[in-house]
What does this fold into?
Amino acid sequence: MRKIFTVFAALMMTWSLSAADCQDGPYGLQINGTKVVDAPKFGEPDVQGRVQYKAACVELAVGNVVKLINQSCAATWMVDLDPYGDYANFTGGSTAGQLTCNVAGKYDFYIKLSASAGDLVYVELGKSCGDNPGGGGGGGDNPGGGDGEIDDVNFYAIGWINGADHGESAYDTYEEEYLFVDGKLTIDCQMGSYICIKDHMGNFYRSRTQTTINDTQVTLEWQNGWAGGEKWAIPQGTNYIIMRSGTLKGNIVLERVDKATYDAYKPAGNQVVENVTVSDKARKVFIDGQLRIIRGDKTFDATGRQL
It folds into this structure.
């Protein structure tokens, strides 16, 4: 945890105070060297045991500089960003000692501090700020909340498949052979394959518990503000996988079934899998050498962006 050690170092360099002058909080954000936004303790520790603090609906303009602050002694520092949510709207981190905002908006900051797991900051567009386009979702460690009504969502299986990394390390990589169509995916696997889910907006869904090839069903949670997570172990051979239920930015339940169940399966109810189909079966075509996905009268590129 950098709450005491890093704060102590900052104090020694800046104010020559002792570590005893810094308490364990209160914490917050310092904006442009003057304004301070409180970050009270939020929820339970994440799965890595990090204590969480949240600064909600922090309004930032392009070029604003953000630092963490221990308000008990005015010590400031910064840690690295969790590479999920809207992290790409910022540059900087622990090495720079600050974050710089590159996209104006209102943001929720989740400050995650731990003595052993390493400190992180997770940032996303504010979910309850009223005027953020696209802002929303479960927030922090709230895997159940979400946007189940959003249309035209593409879900992809990613992970370690047939002895190679598919789509997980490369943040913007999507492979059409692993796209769920009508809530279904057929996948041929070698021994030792594992998958999780990523939607075309970059949201990851992983299991909180380790799985084995004997687990025919798994619940994958939106990985919003929590690190780690497990992929689903897939047996060798042809696997027929369906989305039993799910909520965008929530939980997705996958199940391996037999071929007859797979062929007969149709998503039902007001669930994300219904949104995956958008009531029309997706067709994959090549136009001018580029892969396109057509649903009804709408055309999408390989990342799910409507054209």
Q: What stands out?
A: Residues 155-300 form one domain. The first helix runs from residue 5 to 14. Residues 1-20, 132-151, 269-281 have pLDDT under 50 and may be disordered.
